[in-house]
Amino acid sequence: MERLTLKQFYDTMLLKALFFSLPDQESQKGFQHKSISNAVVDGIMQHCHCDQFVVCYQEWSIKKPFSLLVEHPEHMVKFQFELEGSSLFTDEEGKQIPIPSGHQQFIYLPTTKGSLYYPLSRKVLDIHIEFDFLLAFLREQGFSRTQLKEHFLVNSWTFFREAIPITFEQQTLIRELLAHSFEGAFAKDYIRCKAMEIMLSVFSEKVDTVSRISWKSQDLHILQQIRSYLDQNFAKDLQFKTICRTFGINEFKLKKAFKECYGDTVFGYIRKARLKHALHLLVDTDMDIKEVSYICGFKYPHHFSQLFFQHYRCRPREARSKTGVIV
User: Fold this and answer.
1) Which of 80-94, 148-162, 255-269 has the highest mean pLDDT?
2) Quick check: helix, strand or coil at residue 124?
3) What strand order describes the sheet that includes 41-50?
4) In the chain, where are the structural domains located?
5) Which residues contact 108 (CB under 8 A, 6 or more apart)?
């Protein structure tokens, strides 16, 4: 059986690089398009980057069954709707995630290393998402963070113990997402809203709702402003008291509300943002590791290396030599 690397299949070492690369052509109905042609597949990929998540649809005409080798040090979080065909992920120890035709699964992997087996032509919709954003979004809909953490079965990789059938409602939403006739900025907004409907539908029948969160809408608006500020300024020398004064919120409320809404402390969030950016610089550039550490806001390279190892379980130099994919 043919075994391909990501580079051989997509002509890139990181699938995420496709999502953030400059398009070869103008978007059509909000989607960027890419042709796929290699020894095992002819097909198309279309994707739309919606800030905290990416919507990606692929159609493959498979010439022969094959395996795709994948490895990536970052967390992989996605919804997968296997509309036609099937996929089977197997890690190094033999643990598997099978998704047959017409089924769905929500997948959370701390690292991705193993192989994907594809025996048949397929159509698949993937929504790659930031986990903290997903938790915050669902909490705004009235879901309990505690319940969500329990049901996600993070240690078991998946939300559902086995892949479940795609519902009629979800099939309708997916058709509407893919077959709309809008163009320009409105098309992207439409895709974003429709994708969020699809994501919410995954949990609506599986997680009991609880009383609405206790934070006022004004508090949540301030938190969103602070999070946006941190996303843009994580590499700066940020001070907690200065952030509180700038956004008019007291220290106790910010500590408690930020932790509840985003699942991390303010500086834990900043540290993860710095490490994530550092990883991309290591993979996508030949920048010196010391320079990467300074650019990302770390004062001391040795401290950066320690934190990087704690988060990704590999040294910065090792991460640079690895290849992988967000599947």
Assistant:
1) 80-94
2) strand
3) 32-37, 41-50, 53-62, 122-129, 76-84, 103-109, 164-165
4) 2-204, 217-321
5) 75, 76, 77, 131, 152, 154, 157, 158, 159
- Sequence-separated (6 or more) residues with CB below 8 Å from residue 50: 188, 191, 192, 195
Given a cut of 60, is residue 323 above it in pLDDT?
A: no
Nearest to 306 by CA among 275, 277, 264: 275
Give residue 135's pLDDT band: very low, low, confident or very high (50, 70, 90): confident
Confidence class of residue 130 from pLDDT cuts 50, 70 and 90? confident
Angle at which helices 251-262 and 131-140 pack, to 10 degrees? 100
CB neighbours of residue 210 within 10 Å: 13
For the chain, counts of helices (H) and of strands (E):
13, 12
- Whether 207 and 106 have beta carbons less than 8 Å apart is answered as no
Q: With 50 as the cut, is the pLDDT of residue 181 above it?
A: yes
Tell how far CA 219 is from the center of its chain: 26
Per-residue b or e along 263-299, where b marks 16 or more CB atoms closer than 10 Å to that residue's CB: beebeebbbbbbbbbbbbbbbeeeeebeebbeebbbe
209 contact partners, CB below 8 Å, separation of at least 6? 141, 142, 143, 144
Tell me the backbone φ, ψ of residue 262, rounded to 5 degrees: -115, 0
Tokens of 23: 């398009």
Nearest CA-CA partner of 169 in 192, 148, 199, 210: 199
217-321 CATH, one of 3.40.50.720, 3.40.605.10, 1.10.230.10, 1.10.10.60 = 1.10.10.60
Residue type at position 290: K
Please give the pLDDT value at position 58. 97
